[in-house]
Each structure stands twice: as C-alpha cells, then as structure tokens.
Amino acid sequence: MTVGLRYLPDYSASNPYQSMLYSRASDFDVDVSAITLDDLDALDPATGASIVHLHWTNPIVQRFADPSRARDSMRRTLDTLRRYRERGGRLVWTVHNVLPHDHSNHVLELELCQHLAHEADVVHVLSPSTMRAVEPYYPLLDATVITEGHASFLGHYPDTVTREHARTHLGLEPDDEVIVSVGGVRPYRGLERLAAAVTQLQRTRPRARLAVAGRPGRGTDVGALERALDAVPRTVRRLDFVPDDELQNWMRAADVAAMPYERILNSSSLPLAQTFGLPVIAPDLGVFHDHRGAPYLHLYPARSTEGLVAALDAALRAEDRAVRAAAARQAAEEYPPEAMSRGFFQQLLGALS
Predict the structure, then answer these.
(1) Which residues of the chain register pLDDT less than 70?
(2) How far is CA 156 from CA 59, 159, 160, 332, in A?
C-alpha cells in the first residue's frame, strides 16, 4: 500500500536537499509531494496523505513583522496539525537549526519549536550534536528521534571543468593559494571575520587569495561586507546566486574551503566541500564537532580570528593536502544522496510502524 508524504516548506528550487532526501521514496512505496501551509487543513489521512513532514519553520512565524499576526499564524498552524493528527495523520519534524538563522519573534519561535518537539510523532535530526544543542530550548528526551545526516552532492552538481579552466575563468593564477567560501551570505557565516583572517594570512602567505560566492540573505549588511572584502587584496567575489553549472568553477579553483561560522548546527557546505574533494576549515561546533578527527577537517575555536588564521595557514601548509583532499572525496562517495534517502525512509517508516 502506497504511503502519502506531504512536505513543507518547499525550498527545492534553491536547495537540493529535499529532492535528495526523497529521491528513493518509490523504493519504499512512498508518494511524496510538496504542500503549502494553506493546504494543511484539507489533508485527509484516510485518502493517502498520512504523513506531514515539516522542515524549516520560517514560513509559520518569521514571515510576519507584526508579532500578533505571527502568533495568529502559529496558533492556526498548530491547531491544523492537531486536527490532522486527530484524524490519524502523522507529523514528522526535521530540526535543521536550533532556531531559524537571524530570526525575529524569538519568543514565538521558541514556543513553536517546543510544541513541535512535544507533538511530533517523529523528530528527524541531521547530527548527534542536535540533542545537546536544543536541550536548553526544547529537549527531545521524550521524542521519537531518528538521525540521518546530510549526504554529499555526488552526481547532483556538474563537475567537468579542470582546475586550470576554473582558475582562468575566475581570474586566478596557477600558483595562488585559493580559499573559497560558497553559499548564501548571511551574518552567521562569519565572512567579515574570514576577510580579516585572510588579510592577516597574506602577510606570511602573499599568494593567499579569497574567493567568495553567494547571494546575500536576510539581515546581511551588504555594504559592510563589500568594504571588508575590498580590504583583502585580490579578492574574487560574486555576491549573487551561483547557478549549478557555475558552482564547479568556484570549487575546482580552490585549494581549501573555509566555513567560519559564528554559530552552526548543520551545514550543507561541508558535504559540498567533500563532493569536490576540498579540505575544510571550520569552527569546532555542531556538525563539524561531530566529524572531529576527520583528516580533511582543520578545526579552530569558534569566533577566534587568531584561531581561524592558524587553521587557514595549517590547511594551506599541509604537505599531505592531496591525501586530505582524497579523504574528503572518499567521504562523499561513501555517503551519496541515495544512501541518505534510503536511510531516512528505513528509519522513518520503522519509527511510525
């Protein structure tokens, strides 16, 4: 018998995670499709839509500047989900972040997450660090929790260009030491700290180059970021969305990938770097802490510019950089999207049965 899973919000147009997660749904006789908040009340578990999978909570509260409208949306959504479950439907919630990045309506968001942690039939986490990270806000001790991490992007993004072509395309020299940061530009990503760190690094490594690509998101002071990047000699940047076929130029031109997040729980940038075989510089937080000891990881104390400089220097100086790069690529090959999807559905259906 086919099981119907309806998910929201649908971010698959700009984020491949959901399409990757559901890619093997047919292997488990699960019919998957996206819905909106407005569709929730019409769902009937008796006619096949027996699972609602909620991902990011942003559309429920964060899209409203007016707190009263945000609270109305939260109450309406929770009431709708309660009625759906009373009719036999099952609710699954994926905890992507402790709370949404750079969120407003903090009290309401916290209340919403507490309700979801208590009411969801299954809570899906992407990293073991999640249990510890959310405990001060909404403990998951009584929840049915499944853990399935973020797979690599193997087979998803084009990967056909050579290093030489990629560097020529971006205006980089063959002997440059290229540090890349790719992804949505948000305050928590620490790009201004990265700019300051690379400026310091260039005093001893004059061939170090910074390459930054990604579209600025909510809360980003683009002017301040532009000034910070302008202060780093010979920086290459594209502060805009990077199309799938262009992403390979940024990744293939790089020697290392920097992820200097001020705070983080999960990261799609890590599996992206693994996919392109890049050593990673990251803070000792969240999913990076969970991968501590991996040969391709160079960790440093979070929010430490000096630690970031040292980690960048160590990554570029490493004589075994090729070995570390190979280890990153091996990690990607060992956990492709189809493995994530199979693992997710095996655990989910097992938990719901």
Answers:
(1) none
(2) 27, 9, 12, 12
